[in-house]
Amino acid sequence: MNSKQLLARKDATGAVQTLRDHLHGAGKLARDFEEEFSAISYTAALLHDIGKASEDFQEYLLSAKGHRGSVIHAWQGAFLVDDACALSSEKSAAEQAVQEITREILELAIAKHHGELPDCLDVDGLSTFFDGLATDRKNEIRFSYQEVKDRISYLDLDIAGNYDKSIRDVEHFMQKFNMGGIANSDSFYFYLGLFAKYVYSRLIDADRLDAACFEERRTYRSKSIDWSSLIDRFEKNIRKFDHTSEINKIRNRISEQCRLEGKRSTGIYRLAVPTGGGKTLASLNFALHHAIETNKRRIIYVIPYLSITSQTVKVFREILELDEDDTETLLEHYSSAGGRKDDDTFTNTQSEFDQEEDDEQNAKRKLATERWDSQIIVTTMVRFLETVMSSKSGDLRRFHNMADSIIIFDEIQSLPTNAINLFNEVVSFLSKILGSTIVLCSATQPLLERTSRKNLLLADCPNLIDDSQEYFEKLRRTCVVAATEMKNCDELAEILYLIFDYPHKHHTFKHFEV
Fold first, then answer.
1. Do 212 and 234 sit in the same domain of this protein?
2. Beta strand spans in 334-381 (E)
3. What's the Cα-to-Cα distance from 221 to each of 354, 402, 457, rounded to whole Å?
4. Which of 103, 195, 342, 380 is surrounded by the fewest CB atoms within 10 Å?
5. What is the pLDDT of residue 341?
6. SS (H, E, C) 452-466
7. What is the overall mean pLDDT for the chain?
8. Containing domain of residue 458, as a range?
9. 377 and 415 housed in the same domain
10. What stretch of H or E contains 439?
11. Number of neighbours of residue 64 by Cβ within 10 angstroms
């Protein structure tokens, strides 16, 4: 049987996609998503559906007998990786360790590309998942493993060569870890887990995207990134603001300083701006110029509260002149985003053309939220952490698109104390391993780096605004007076005079125990 006879799928019209086309198509997508770590991602995608070469799967596909998932086709690719990883006594212990890590990352991604990632260790520390890849299991009839191996010569896989290239990617990951200034060695295992999820994410996205392209009879083309036009719109609309008032002069100075700081290299930074200082637009100004300076792929704006997400999106759309339907440039991904104000059901007042347009737009939005490949994404802290820490393939599919990005965390002081170590590890991994710039925004900066693990790897000069205290003084809106001691009548009269004679009536004075 040649490669043209082995099929990967058949749609409702009877059109078929060959297994060779799907494996190489998904492999190319996984490889091309990002330049770094492309070899191990390519290998995972190239081998993920190799089990479909079995006679059982081909018969199931053509006869339409049985139910979806009734024929196992994921584990065979993991078995091939296991065979390729023949540990040699001639290799050093370090070389064997890297090879073993490569094997486990590939096996995990391939074997579990349907469903979700498992716990690889049980409560007793036993390797329950990888024990399932033992040699005797490969020979079980349900896997048809020998039959699959006999057929894959038609598929041009170069398993040994691609496995060796994958090893070099893992070596590159370990070099980046060792050079990243990571003081806590315990972080290595956390980083390794995130790296495995990252490879898995690239496989999942490539597999589903290639399948969707086949179903829709289209060829995937990566989106072109044009930061210059967004910067032009931003600066044009910023110039329209009133710059005569004192508060707007301060906001303009803060924004301009952020623009200049956009020339900095990739790292983790803090942006301390007082309430009313224009932090939202200032951080966007930094991000746009930093994106074009460092060739970043996207800006992700993470907000802790739903109450301010839509407000932030509105500001972004206005300053960048974006339509509400333009999800390619700006995507909202949170629970209340993208919904209609009225009933979603089709009514007689809505034409079939309008309904078709709505359906098409909803489909675009759904794909955009599944992939996160828009230029600017506004989401919540919950959604961000789900994307990184979930075991579900639907959540993790987005993860790889956080690489080589600018991720801005607004109101970072709201981060729960029990999540600080987790958060520190995640953003440091994103910055040191995946090349993303992190910006921690707040009017009251928490000391996230003051943890016992020392796992927040701030840039050498982390503050984007050096003279922020000056701005805090000028934008001070309240004056707290601890008037807790007993007052006589003359002293009380003086306080009342101060309150009622104060020239700015919108100020509020609160006194305790006078």
1. no
2. 376-380
3. 27, 19, 35
4. 342
5. 38
6. CCCCCCCCCCCECCC
7. 88
8. 227-338+363-475
9. yes
10. strand 437-442
11. 8
